[in-house]
């Protein structure tokens, strides 16, 4: 049976932890394993970080990536997702990395009889999950010396439409972090009975939420997923719910600043805070390649490299 990375919840016990540790090791210079075969990258939604890092990761473990632009594929002639992936599977690809606006698309693909021998990776499906982002964020913190058992982390902004925050909430629970906090405008907070956020401490005021945390994770307003956006004034939003320069100055030196990207400068985070020494944003991007290498190694059960004579 093929392995899949669809969300954090369905990963077998220990795998999320192992993927994080493996990414940290790879980022520290461990040798990648050698994989064989082809992986198709199918992004029906735009992406820079996730698409490019999966492509680089595939190359670095010896896979051949095939990047398909759906806007130039037979999708535009009306071909269904099911028929597109069945076509790729029939050509013998070993793995499919999929991003789609509809929640559940990756899981639906993984359950198809036509993709039985293909490993499916969810690279973001609607508001549902973005597991590799959560894993790489945790790996970035751990590589920077953070002990999950002592970590209090705040996610703030548009939680309701954030697949990153959902995957992170599941992952951090598995990693046994000390505290998960969430804060945002009422219309952007998760539902009170959302089981993913059952352990989260909720705040109605960003300054209160920031007091005493070890890490902050800013979230972009997911305009592409919001039907009736009430926010018209970015400056007002920034003042109330953004990591302003003043708020960043009040944070202690040990506090790590994260953002999954892409960043809307001056909305959820001040442009100057992105370059703050406490900001891990570009380190998250770098870790993305190592984490996705670890994902391919695990998915495809790749061999250890042959020792050089
Ligand atoms: N974080 C993230 O998913 O970024 P991209 O949309 O650029 O892939």
How would you summarize what this structure contains?
This protein has 309 residues and is α/β, with parallel strands linked by helices. It is 36% helix and 15% strand.
Query: What compounds sit in this structure?
Result: phosphoric acid mono(formamide)ester
Low-confidence segments, ≥5 residues, pLDDT <50? none
Structural class, from helix and strand content?
A: alpha/beta
Distance between the termini: 35 Å
Return the average pLDDT rounded to an integer: 95
Account of the protein in words:
The longest helix has 20 residues, at 281-300. The model has no long low-confidence stretch (mean pLDDT 95). The protein has a 5-stranded parallel β-sheet with strand order 7-6-5-8-9. A 4-stranded parallel β-sheet has the order 2-1-3-4. The two termini are 35 Å apart. Strand 1, helix 2 (49-60) and strand 2 form a beta-alpha-beta unit. The protein has 11 helices and 9 strands. It has helices at 15-27, 49-60, 81-90, 105-110, 131-143, 163-175, 206-210, 234-241, 245-250, 271-274, 281-300; strands at 38-43, 64-68, 95-100, 119-125, 152-157, 179-183, 201-203, 215-219, 256-258. It has 309 residues and is an alpha/beta fold. The structure holds phosphoric acid mono(formamide)ester (CP). The site of phosphoric acid mono(formamide)ester has 9 residues, from helix 2. Phosphoric acid mono(formamide)ester binds at residues 47-50, 124, 133, 260-262.
Reconstruct the topology from this structure:
Blueprint: H1 15-27, E1 38-43, H2 49-60, E2 64-68, H3 81-90, E3 95-100, H4 105-110, E4 119-125, H5 131-143, E5 152-157, H6 163-175, E6 179-183, E7 201-203, H7 206-210, E8 215-219, H8 234-241, H9 245-250, E9 256-258, H10 271-274, H11 281-300
Parallel strand pairs: 1-2, 1-3, 3-4, 5-6, 5-8, 6-7, 8-9
Bound molecules: phosphoric acid mono(formamide)ester.
